[in-house]
Amino acid sequence: MTSPAPEAAKHEATVHELFQRMSSRDFEGAVALLADDVEFDLAFAPEFFEMPVRGRDAMHALITNVIGAMFDPFRLEVTTTYPGADGSTLVAEYVSDAIVKSNGRPYVNRYIGIFRFGDGGITFWREYHNTEVATAAIS
User: Fold this and answer.
1) Which of 22, 24, 38, 113 gives 34 a disulfide partner, CB atoms 3.0 to 4.6 angstroms apart?
2) Rounded CA separation 97/69 (Å)
3) Spatial separation of the C-alpha atoms in residues 115 and 40, rounded to whole Å
4) Where are the domains of the chain?
5) Interior angle at CA 19, CA 24 and CA 133, nearest 5
6) Contacts for 110-119: CB closer than 8 Å, 24+ residues apart
């Protein structure tokens, strides 16, 4: 049995890599880190975003249509991680630094993400963010 410490480090590295790929607009590479049946849930999503999103292809469409279409640049950076006791969960705090394409406004937000991992990569991702910051930047 693998000790939790190496698994936690592996999971942390995967989340860092996910955000690096998303930040460099390598959306294909980003979704390659997700399991085929990944589930993504934006906890306080606007009504027009149907949640949860299930599957790698659906995640590719979401990332491309939101990050790719609405922001340039869009950077995500992990600030702190907390490994779960079960060895398959990681909680991460992270920040975004972006510019809204439609209005040139800065978008800087803080997030908490809960990630679960399986053999195929990230199997679950739930994200919490400050919706007021997002609304103010996009409006």
Assistant:
1) 38
2) 16
3) 9
4) 4-138
5) 100
6) 111/76, 113/15, 114/89, 114/90, 115/11, 115/15, 115/89, 115/90, 115/91, 116/88, 116/89, 117/7, 117/11, 117/14, 117/88, 117/89, 117/90, 118/35, 118/88, 119/35
User: Residues of 5-31 as b/e, b for ≥16 C-beta within 10 angstroms?
Assistant: eebbeebbebbbebbbbbbebebeebb
Structure tokens, 34: 């997700």
Amino acid sitting at position 95: V
The CATH code for residues 4-138 is: 3.10.450.50
User: pLDDT tens track of the chain, all 139 residues?
Assistant: 444 578 999 999 999 999 999 999 999 999 999 999 999 999 999 888 899 999 999 999 999 999 999 999 999 999 999 999 999 999 999 999 999 999 999 999 999 999 999 999 999 999 999 999 999 999 9
| Joined tokens for residue 56 | 């790698």
